[in-house]
Amino acid sequence: MSEYIPSPTDWVAKQVELYESSGGTEGLTLRDTGLPVIIVTNTGRKTGAIRKTPLMRVADGDNYVLVASKGGAPEHPFWYYNLKADPNVEIRDKTELYTMRVREVNDPAERQRLWAIAVEAFPPYQQYQNKTDRLIPVFVAEPVA
Predict the structure, then answer these.
(1) Residue 104, domain extent
(2) Which of 17, 51, 58, 81 could, after both became Cys, cross-link 65 (CB 3.0–4.6 A)?
């Protein structure tokens, strides 16, 4: 079993700790927004360590939409590269835990549909896209049969 390395970003590490230590009953929203988050567990591409990231909860049926926005920063978040290297993830949604596989959405029509769902769930995504020159990557996480 790989070692878990908490995020170097203090509030992220604390939120993951609260979410998981409560069994998915606390720490369920992004800071002061009141909007729900999930915890995505993946493998670090350089360290091989377990990494956990709270992301906005964007559901599409049984799938989850993961948006690599990094607040509209000019570069992708670190977890983007981890998912590209190893698409196997675990998603905690409140008290439920799901084994899933992600894929980056490259088909323009599918991306547009999923982007609309993501922006509806978390409107700032559109502002983030407007302030960066990069096309913000979208992944879909699908249950592993």
Answers:
(1) 10-143
(2) 58
